[in-house]
Amino acid sequence: MFEIFGVPSNALFGQLLIGLINGSFYALLSLGLAVIFGMLNIINFSHGAQYMLGAFVAYLLLQYSGLGYWPALIVAPILVGITGMIVERLMLRWLYKLDHLYGLLLTFGLALIFEGVTRNYFGSAGLPYTVPDSLQGGRNLGFMFLPNYRAWVIVASLTICFGTWFVIERTRLGAYLRAATENPTLVRAFGINVPRMITLTYGFGVALAAFAGVMAAPIYNVSPQMGSELIIVVFAVVVIGGMGSILGAIVTGFGLGVVEGLTKVFFPEASNTVIFVVMAIVLLVRPAGLFGRRA
Amino acid sequence: MRKTLGLAALTAALACSGANAQQVSVKIGVLSDMSSLYADIGGPGSVVAAKMAIADFTKANPNVKVELISGDHQNKPDVGSQLANQWYDVDKVDLIIDTPNSGVAFAVSQITATKNKVFVVSGAAASDLTGPKCNANTVHWTYDTWMLANGTGKALVKTGGDSWFFLTADYAFGHALERDTAAAVEKNGGKVLGKVRHPLNTNDFSSFLLQAQASKAKIIGLANAGGDTINAIKAGAEFGIVKGGQKFAGLLVFASDVAALGLPTAQGLTLTETWYWDMNDANRAWTKRWQQERAGKFPTMVQAGVYSGLTHYLKAVTALKSAADGKAVVAQMKTTPTDDPLFGKGTIRADGRKLHPAYLLEVKAPSESKYPGDFYNVKATIPADEAFRPLKEGSCPLVSG
Amino acid sequence: MEHVVDPLATKPSALRGQSETIFFVVMVVGLVVAPFVTYPLFLMQAMCFALFACAFNLLIGYVGLLSFGHALYFGWASYLSAHSAKVWGFPPEFAILTGTATAAVLGLLAGSLAIRRQGIYFAMITLALAQMMYFFALQAKFTGGEDGIQAVPRGYLFGVIDLKNEIAMYVVVLVVFLAGFLFIYRIIHSPFGEVLKAIRENEQRAISLGYKTDRYKLVAFVLSTTLAGLAGATKAIVLQLASLTDVNWPMSGEVVLMTLVGGLGTIFGPVVGSFVILVMQYKLSIVGEWVLVIQGMIFVACVLLFRRGIVGEIANWLRLRL
To answer: Which domains does chain B show, CATH number per domain?
Structure first.
């Protein structure tokens, strides 16, 4: 096989594919955050903790009610989404008139609570969760071995990302939502229940985080700190993509996966700093992010 | 929890109304990680182990009064330092024990030497604690990085795993583990085919594992710990590493990590520990007692080390009749051979290193595991005099020549 | 960025002019007497964090800029101070100066990148830069990585005063803290400070009045990071330790918490907040498992119910400026 920059092309293609897979995961995770900020102007710092809760609920469903991976994919996001709606109703509602800062601090505090309580009950090492039988194994693609589960991750992520983007940007429901964010009073005058829409939207964003959590459970360690490790990266993705833009978050998520994958081949020690370097550069050149609306 | 062991005082008062001539008073502090990464390895379980040691010892020696406090260093050297200073200066603690996290252990060791108290390290791994950073007030129990590297490295090479690829966490601890293991592998006739350094707290190992697969090394050495090790092994299961004929060697793995992985994913993993709850009847009996306060969990070697180390300390203090002079107590600990139900007979060397055998363990397949906690097959025993770094190689200033 | 809650929203009382002086005197007396009743090492650490929080508050409370990566300056100053004292053999006053200078330079570099943006983007850039420097600290040899730089010598101040003597060290820390505090006070109550407040209230109007707001913001930013660096450099000498904890983002989060609890935009708020949080942390280290949860609950409670913070509420109740 031929070599590119000293790395055999086989290996490079394999790393690129893995980068895409990771990217689809980042996209899925940033999607919920982008929805919440784009639609509601709330900086949801508890996104990582809600992702973690999704994984934990999947574990608990398996342990205590025998519900496996596939039902958990639907049940866990619904359950966690409901807790999100409760949070919005009881706490976030009071902060809309204030500076963004307070929403950020509140959700930051909630993240600490979720993580702390989970750690006290489950310990910090982690809980076991395996790949469901239907997705075990993989196929040899010639340049690498692709586990079936990872292929599923790309498919699921693309579906959900496209679906969400479509609903928000191309349907009437999405149009109402976008209008409600820009001018709530006017939209209310049309008879649309704006507060309820906001609550449901926040719940939806949280459910997306939990969905990503269930997807992560079989392949990453299910531990209380799994969210806080990812949250900063996810924020960086959303900021680069442009904080109002769903498409931006999706594209950046995939892009980051590829960039990170390439870094892991050529300069692995820096693979977790590259995102921040990219973010700093993008923000200097295009202050609103790649696809952002507000300058 | 801050609890005063008044029970010991009560036993003393009731048991010996006449023989209260030589009351020895001692205060112990269990400094551990109670709330984050190492909470399962040490943490509240270490406090339970310490309480058991105190209960057993004061039963046999009613004239000794022992008070116990505990604290959470949160894996931060500054919090650990502050607690150590406060405990020694204000709370009049005589012994600090446990302390997983080498950074905190170094800080506490320093403070202990300055204040002439005693520090028994059960949780931390750094072999430098009995090397260049040794002092006359610190005893290193349970395990260290040299033992882990040599135990696993040498034993695997001898059983056919003679080509290695390292997955190393990119910080001092990971580098040290990789360096020590590579040395052990090469010394015993093996070859290191390659390595890749990953950032600390990496989630996704697929691309690193791809590189490991491409190297075709027989053993993939995991020079990392905690979440990194777990994520690497989990990804390894997905990518069919073990099915492809390669094996994982966990260079720092605890029973709690194996529990987090689950046997289907962890089976075949090779590691070295110095104590396993299911090895003999004495260990099993102790574990049953321990589980009365930590239901559903299994004790780790660190927690067993707390029990063992504390027992030996109390023996030394009783012999000297006072805990006041840290250096004297440690000297006494070094001249007295150790003996307890968990680690058996052993000795403490001049550099503060406690010697006991190490065991090469392999994680069982799910079909072989008969009950919860039945994790390991014992593959080999490494005798005490081979398991730890030779005295002369440590560059400890206490060792002359 | 829209401004934060102004604690002096209602009409002030007659005592206003003197209220700050009175509280300042109370604070100084308290700090002078305290080491005789409480553990001095704890107090010294608290003062370092109080200075750090005051420096942070300068930026958020008076300029309206939320820096999410302030630990960068605190931590790196701490590293350079420790390294220069231990490896280069600097006496403590030069070690502290080295640390502070490091923070100033880093602040200038970071500030010139970040100042151009507003609000959440500003916060994110500061966070990104802090994370990059955290990973650099993790891997660089001289920082000691996970172990940090330990056994930093206290040294002899000006060559004669032995800082291993707790009283001497305490006096030094007290002087540093008060100097920093008074400096911040002077900044706030100066023409420069008035411009900063104008920028916070309405930047567009300030620009239209002819002020080069970016330059003012940058100066304020560098001042804030320099003082944060002074706090970190001093802490390294006091605790004789510089570690990764000091540069990591939870530390940035903690200084936000301290300022929030004490009272954003008040002068004494950060001091009170930092003492409260530190006391809480040490009392709770005994009950380790719940520290994180309780900190989270305090955040939530402060944001929902208690937005002015302790000092802010007192000031509001007494209608004073604090």
So the answer is: 6-16+23-143+279-352 (3.40.50.2300), 146-273+358-383 (3.40.50.2300)
